[in-house]
From TrEMBL:
<dbReference type="GO" id="GO:0005524">
    <property type="term" value="F:ATP binding"/>
</dbReference>
<comment type="subunit">
    <text>Homotrimer.</text>
</comment>
<comment type="pathway">
    <text>Cofactor biosynthesis; adenosylcobalamin biosynthesis; adenosylcobalamin from cob(II)yrinate a,c-diamide: step 2/7.</text>
</comment>
<dbReference type="Pfam" id="PF01923">
    <property type="entry name" value="Cob_adeno_trans"/>
</dbReference>
<dbReference type="GO" id="GO:0008817">
    <property type="term" value="F:corrinoid adenosyltransferase activity"/>
</dbReference>
<protein>
    <recommendedName>
        <fullName>Corrinoid adenosyltransferase</fullName>
        <ecNumber>2.5.1.17</ecNumber>
    </recommendedName>
</protein>
<keyword id="KW-0547">Nucleotide-binding</keyword>
<keyword id="KW-0808">Transferase</keyword>
<keyword id="KW-0067">ATP-binding</keyword>
<keyword id="KW-0169">Cobalamin biosynthesis</keyword>
<dbReference type="GO" id="GO:0009236">
    <property type="term" value="P:cobalamin biosynthetic process"/>
</dbReference>
<dbReference type="InterPro" id="IPR029499">
    <property type="entry name" value="PduO-typ"/>
</dbReference>
<comment type="similarity">
    <text>Belongs to the Cob(I)alamin adenosyltransferase family.</text>
</comment>
<dbReference type="InterPro" id="IPR036451">
    <property type="entry name" value="CblAdoTrfase-like_sf"/>
</dbReference>
<dbReference type="InterPro" id="IPR016030">
    <property type="entry name" value="CblAdoTrfase-like"/>
</dbReference>
Amino acid sequence: MKLYTRTGDEGKTSVIGGRVRKDDSRVEAYGTIDELNSFVGQAAAVALATGQLNELQVELVEIQQELFDCGSDLAFADPEGRTFKMTAEPALRIEGWIDAHTEASPAITRFILPGGSEVSALLHVCRTVCRRAERRVVTLSGELPINGDVLKYINRLSDYFFAAARSANAKLGVSDTEYIRSAEVFRSNDK
């Protein structure tokens, strides 16, 4: 099998059920999700290499599978009447992971800067790329019908990356760096 086809040399690419320009909103959306998936893979490799974050690595690999499902669901030229891979269940599971990572992290009162450990820094890159992917999916949803479960999942996922980044730092004994000019913006639910 050849990796090059030459079919995109004039700026068009195939989607499920047709061809579109490579800068089409659909391609922008699933392409940004693919970019996110690459960063998640890097974060998973670094998490595994620490020898202390195996559970995080397993979560990230599952997220990679689901991101591929999201891209697949967005790749339909005409999504009407299609059976989608993404359902509401993965977003609900992500919420459980967010809660677990939040409980494993110190209380937060101020904004924090991305960084700390290498894996935490990578998870913050994932968070910001995820937010961009979400913007691309929102743009697409304003133009064409999409699987709404993809948008819910991507929205939840950026919160997951924030919580996982903080939890990774805590598990590795690395402090988050607070944004020193931040007022106290987060309040505990205990008060």
